[in-house]
Design a protein that fits this description.
Layout: E1 12-17, H1 23-35, E2 41-44, E3 55-60, E4 63-68, H2 72-83, E5 94-97, H3 145-150, H4 166-175, E6 181-186, H5 195-202, H6 204-218, E7 222-228, H7 232-245, E8 254-258, H8 267-274, E9 299-302, H9 304-315, E10 329-336, E11 342-347, H10 353-356, E12 365-370, E13 376-378, H11 387-392, E14 400-405, H12 410-424, H13 430-446, H14 453-466, H15 470-474, H16 476-494
Parallel strand pairs: 1-2, 6-7, 6-9, 7-8, 10-14
Antiparallel strand pairs: 1-3, 3-4, 4-5, 10-11, 12-13, 12-14
Helix pairs in contact: 1-2, 5-6, 6-9, 12-13, 12-16, 13-14, 13-16, 14-16
Domain NADH-ubiquinone oxidoreductase 51kDa subunit iron-sulphur binding: 411-456
Pfam families: Complex1_51K, NADH_4Fe-4S
Keywords: 4Fe-4S, Iron, Iron-sulfur, Metal-binding, Ubiquinone
Amino acid sequence: MTQETTAFAHTTVVRVSTDGGSQSGDRVRSAARTAADSVPVVRTGPTGITAATPLVMVTSGGRTAFYGDPSPGTVRDLVDELEAGTVLTADADAVVEHDPETASLPVPERGPLSVGRRSVLGPCGWVAPLDAADWSFVSTERTADVAAEAGLLGRGRGDAAADEPITDVWETVRATDGDPVVVCNANDASTLPTGDETLLSGAPMAVLDGIAAVAGYVDAEDAVIYINESQTGLQAHLREAIDAAADTLPVVPQLVAGPDEFRAGEPTAALEALEGADRVEPRLQPPSPAKHGLYGRPTVIHTPRTFAQVQRAVAEPESIDADAADPGTRIVTVTGDVPDPATVELGSSGSLTAAREAVEMDGSCKMACVGGVLGGITRNLDMAPTAQSLRAAGLGTDGVVELFDTDRCAVETVGKRARFASMENSGRCVPGREGTKQLAELLRDIYQGSFESDKIRELGRVMRQSSNCQIGAHAPRPVTTAIDEFEPEFRAHTDGHCPSGTCTEKL
């Protein structure tokens, strides 16, 4: 039985791409290692495509055969043939010819892995995530100067510079007195966006490298990765990655777990949790974290997605279009009424419709919620996946596209999200505390025969403009966008009729 930790030490290798908690992945990997004699078998992280997990990639020289979710018996046959010098391709899902030294997963011509691009996601599924030897670190030689010039925007609701130029934050931190600190906010209690988790599982070295590059730019000697306390498996995985890279990285982050609460993922709430506050709630701003952050220090707070974009910009400056309004790529999780969610990467010149191609649906798609649990409802995905396009369409930018089939009721769907916001907000500001309750009540009134569209819209306007927290500001978005798209359905409910035929409970 051959066990390897590096995927790049040999030109012939079997990669088993899986996540840490997959029993089927463990069985497949065990079968491959049992059959292997001289052929190295390497566990790699997830690709983001759950339908093909575990994914076995049999590589010899510049040729790789892909087998999605194979049986242990099939895997043993593949390894036996490879031991004899043959790569079986007859039953492969795809076969790709590529540069033998590629550090990015070779992309098949068809199938979910072919959707969009694999730039930031490129190492995921291809490299050994816990072996520093599989990674070319850029932070050891360069800071994030190149990324600063690229005009990258922050990504994800946990980023203090979400959809804003990250260099504005960096320059503020550099100009502020005090010892700066860099925080990677990976705490998200929502299971909808999986881009950060895919990166931390499949390419943690990219995130660590990006953190160190930013720390070098702002002259910070301290860094923290803030993660959900319930993700014990990912915590152990990251500790191994940090330990493996500790002798290489110029700045080694500390790993800290925080509450498994939706509100705890908001950037300033994350600071409160890191400081051990009894009550986790967002801070009043100004001052921003860049001026008064963790323990009063000037603080950079980005998500893993942002740090990975920074790392890619430093490693391959030519891959970033600095003239684009939203340079780089956007990582999007496609989920909802689909059997197998997928996380894909889309360029700024692409379209969200491409994300639809990464998954299968049993029925027809009635609508989508774009941007997370408090994203916007739309019938149309024909738009660029950029912050500017999504905001112009009234949608969210948190890297999620939920696809809903015709059995979904728009009123019930957004009513549950309004109720979620009323329970999950911190209660610190009146618009967040009282506004979310009023919003949920106005939606319940629809089932009693009262639909006050103008009142809902005015409440939403006030909440967006005056809420201190993201939950209060974004809670109206699913509701108002759903009314824009499905107002007749709302009015039908006042007459006791659900056009979808599935709404059986009053909210």
